[in-house]
Design a protein that fits this description.
Blueprint lengths: L2 H37 L3 H37 L1
Helix pairs in contact: 1-2
Keywords: Coiled coil
């Protein structure tokens, strides 16, 4: 694999990792809101935050899977 293609793939990998980190940060913020709701209950907001938490968690999983697959693709191209 030529160096330019490898560099571009590494940049993409870093972007994916940044997206994953952002999603994990969102999960953390949602968890803070959920924790705050113990002191100031609001059933509607709690339901919304639980749904948002699940979606953000699913996104983290999907991005982690994409990173793993992309890393394998890079490794295969390096070995070729």
């Amino acid at each position: 694999m030529d160096q330019a293609k490898y560099d571009e793939m590494e940049k993409m990998l870093h972007k994916l990792e940044d997206i994953k980190n952002s999603q994990e940060s969102i999960l953390d913020k949602i968890n803070h809101v959920i924790t705050d709701l113990f002191q100031n209950p609001d059933k509607d907001l709690e339901k919304t935050m639980e749904e948002a938490h699940q979606k953000a968690s699913d996104n983290v999983d999907k991005i982690a899977e994409a990173i793993e697959n992309y890393e394998m693709k890079i490794n295969k191209l390096e070995q070729a």
